[in-house]
Amino acid sequence: MAKDKFSVKKAFRDGLFDQNPIFVQLLGMCSTLAVSTSVFNGIGMGLSVTFVLILSNLFISMLRNLIPSKIRIASYIVIIAGFVTVVDMVLQAFIPSLAESLGLFIPLIVVNCIILARAESFASKHGPLPSMLDGLAMGIGFTVALVIISAIRELLGSGTLLGFKITPQSFSPAVLLISPVGGFLVVGGLIALVQWIKSKSRSKKED
Amino acid sequence: MANIFLLALTALLIENFVFVKFYGICPFLGVSQKTDTAVGMGLAVTFTMTIASALTWSLYHFVLKPLHIEYLETIAFILLIACLVQFIEMFLQKAIPSLYSALGIYLPLITTNCAVLGVALLNIQNSYNFIESVIYGFFAGLGFLLAIFLLSLIRERFEFARIPKPFQGVPIALIAGGLLALAFSGLKLSF
Questions:
Q1: Is A46 on the interface with B (CB under 8 A)?
Q2: C-alpha closest to that of B88 among B57, B73, B110
Q3: Cβ–Cβ contact A21 with B under 8 A
Q4: Per-residue model confidence as pLDDT tens digits over B61-71
Q5: Angle between the A180-206 and A128-158 helix axes, to the nearest 10 degrees?
Q6: What pLDDT score does A71 carry?
């Protein structure tokens, strides 16, 4: 553990590119597909997940020597569920419109694989400060990916960005893209694009 | 009776959990390469969702509500589901070892399947009664089984298809899922 020294730069590069939760690790697909119909929802979901990730990573890392390894997953889930309940209540109280459009996907952050994956693979092995930074980096990577997906879907599907009309009057939006079908197609296309870029850069290195 | 029938049909087809509501996408993509494991996973999820619907409904109405701690539903439900999955795992290991070894690592994964927690929360949100909750859970589970079975049939054919390299694996599965979702959205329109 002492060998792989934690570097902030690497954590952020992993979160944004090399280990991007959505495009590379393919985690958290349910909420990705469901909430990426508008950029506002995407940002809201991304920030909620980031908040839960940072705090759950912090607490799991602080408690990592106290939790017996046999019941660790159950303990992690309880910690995560606690913070998700906080987010749920705060959103309902202060941004009810967002809480309504995200709906059940706020409580379902509990079973978002990204958070459990970071708890298991990072926070349970590192100190509190690196764990928080890791949570922040992964959360930002998740948010950025969500914003990219939702920007494509909102722009082409309803002709707006963050609710403002962008496209000219003559453009008739492809409503298909904000329907569930569009979610599958856009995310599939983007992951293929990421894999194509990766194979390109790999073959360049080999030359 | 007609009410129950409509509820079942809605959960199974019109508002299919995978294609319309986006619950349970992770196992839908992760465990759909082979038809037999896909069906095994689908059956295990259906079973868990049915029992979880009954148990979480009882927990909410007999424990959380009298104590006025409804806001703890997420924590209480996920704990109950985790215990239930553990229990099913132990039971299968003892009673039906063949099914247990066939499902293997997919069993613990059911805990983090958002379809299970999703159906529990939906039952409360839509204020279904006990019978409706169990019916809804069972048919939503069957809807998941149908979805993962259909996708696995398509993905088995991909093994012999020449798919462009960047699209191999998950991307083409997502696109196939999207086309299936298109068919299901047609069902929604016709009702």
A1: no
A2: B110
A3: no
A4: 999 999 999 88
A5: 120
A6: 82
Closest to A77 (Cβ–Cβ): which among B82, B175, B178? Answer: B82
Contact B75 A185 (CB under 8 A): no
Work out the pLDDT band at A207, boundaries 50, 70, 90: low
How close is the nearest chain B Cα to the Cα of A80, in Å? Answer: 9
Distance from CA of B116 to the nearest CA of A (A): 10
How does pLDDT run across B69-100, given as a tens digit for each residue?
988 989 999 999 988 988 888 888 888 888 78
Q: In the structure, what pLDDT confidence band is assigned to residue A5 with cuts at 50, 70 and 90?
A: low
ipTM: 0.85
Contact A180 B112 (CB under 8 A): no
Span A105-110, average pLDDT: 90
Answer yes or no: are the C-beta atoms of B109 and B45 closer than 8 Å. Answer: no
CA-to-CA separations, A7 to A4, A133, A186, in angstroms, rounded: 9, 10, 33
Measured between beta carbons, the chain B residues lying within 8 angstroms of A21 are none
Give the whole-angstrom CA distance, residue A36 versus residue A147: 8
Q: Is A159 in CB contact (< 8 Å) with chain B? A: no
Q: Taking a C-beta distance cutoff of 8 angstroms, is the pair A52, A87 a contact?
A: yes
Q: Which amino acid is it at A128?
A: P
